[in-house]
Amino acid sequence: MNLNLDEYPIIDQARVNDLISLSTDGAALLYQLKAMFLTSTPGKILSIKSGLEKNDYVTVRNEAHVLKSTAANLGAKRLSRILDLIEHTSPDQLKPNHEKILQTLDSEFNTICDIFRKDTGL
User: Within the chain, how many helices (H) and strands (E) appear?
Assistant: First the structure.
């Protein structure tokens, strides 16, 4: 399982710009979405971690799928990519790599949270 995410930008600015352009007050919309992400996502990350620890791959896959889409919509490209890998990797491959996966997920999630907190002042 290749967890090297260097080829992916942390933030896909084109996606962010697209999101802003969806509304006459796109910046306010983006602010609200980032604020919701910051409050709702930690629980889902914990569900993924718990699922990996308990070998509950249905929960892992479901939570990863939901978060992958949310991250992608907000332009969090690297986070979306690690979630895509988690969602589409077989349990046989996830199990021996779950410590490395969790480290990578934590790192990318914390990076995005730092960026979103800075952007929103939250």
Answer: 5, 0
